[in-house]
Amino acid sequence: MDLSFRNLSSWLLAEALIALGYVRRARLKYLNGDYILSLYFHNPSKKEFEACVKWLIKHKFTFISVKDLESINNGERPFPKGGVLLTVDDGWASNETNIVEVIAKYEIPVAIFISTHPVEEGSYWWSYLGFRKSKNNDKRIEFLKKVSNSERLAVVDTFKKQFTLSREAMTIEQIHKISKSFLVTIGGHTHSHPILPNCDYLQLYDELNTSKQKLESWINKEIAFFAYPNGDYTIREIQVLKDCGYRLAFSNVPHYISRQHLQNHFELPRIGLLEGASLAENICRMVGVWHPTIKNIKAMFNWDTSIADKTVNYKVKKADLAVVKK
Ligand SMILES: [Zn+2]
């Protein structure tokens, strides 16, 4: 755990939720009912990913693959009690060691949703903006999630010309290697990781189609599953996904999957884990008690710390502002 004030206070809250029986009650609900916990990671350390896996195994959850989920949706297999689906977004280079080695050790399935442009180029677009350690990095990145995709590309290109970053994403060789495991399903996550509703139609089609074709050529397998970058989509995105031949897609709405959710299989919810947080917090997250608690606390204090919900109005260094204005 990173020892920040945020993580320490969240750890205390999580321990209180565990002590008060919230986690136990949620766990029993999943183990006795028709619910699937659908979880997503990004770039966890091996230690934190394995700790989550061990907790799920210890508490008798049943690991299912994304293909199993499709079979359940098609009525080809029964809805499991206490099902859990592990997914990972972006395609970080460290996933080979920190995720794939762990799932191989415990023989459990995982789906990894990969953006193809970072694989070809090495880094994710937001890293070019975050190269300089500054409290404005997050705000700058959130700002670019709100503008048109063309504006985002123009700003990111300006930063790219100024800086070279070391590789963050998996290489094509790594993807090919991990895809050989029957426990790993590779899925789509667009080409350049844009906010899809900010794209025009041609950009949207290209993002979904190009990435699918590239991944299929790299691993010689069909790419049928998808995760929306940042969890953002509209009815238009669902239609284009269907046109491109995808069969199932995940959002970032923090909820378990019920029979009802499965009917909208291009809008499947997922609960996000937080890297650097305490195991206690991530346990609360996994069983779905964390997000409702935080929502209630925020409502109680009329308090919203979400950067994404704030009006973008921030100070940046002169040089940064010049770039953002272009
Ligand atoms: Zn992503």
From TrEMBL:
<dbReference type="GO" id="GO:0005975">
    <property type="term" value="P:carbohydrate metabolic process"/>
</dbReference>
<protein>
    <submittedName>
        <fullName>Polysaccharide deacetylase</fullName>
    </submittedName>
</protein>
<dbReference type="InterPro" id="IPR002509">
    <property type="entry name" value="NODB_dom"/>
</dbReference>
<feature type="domain" description="NodB homology">
    <location>
        <begin position="82"/>
        <end position="326"/>
    </location>
</feature>
<dbReference type="InterPro" id="IPR011330">
    <property type="entry name" value="Glyco_hydro/deAcase_b/a-brl"/>
</dbReference>
<dbReference type="InterPro" id="IPR051398">
    <property type="entry name" value="Polysacch_Deacetylase"/>
</dbReference>
<dbReference type="GO" id="GO:0005576">
    <property type="term" value="C:extracellular region"/>
</dbReference>
<dbReference type="Pfam" id="PF01522">
    <property type="entry name" value="Polysacc_deac_1"/>
</dbReference>
<dbReference type="GO" id="GO:0016810">
    <property type="term" value="F:hydrolase activity, acting on carbon-nitrogen (but not peptide) bonds"/>
</dbReference>
<keyword id="KW-0732">Signal</keyword>
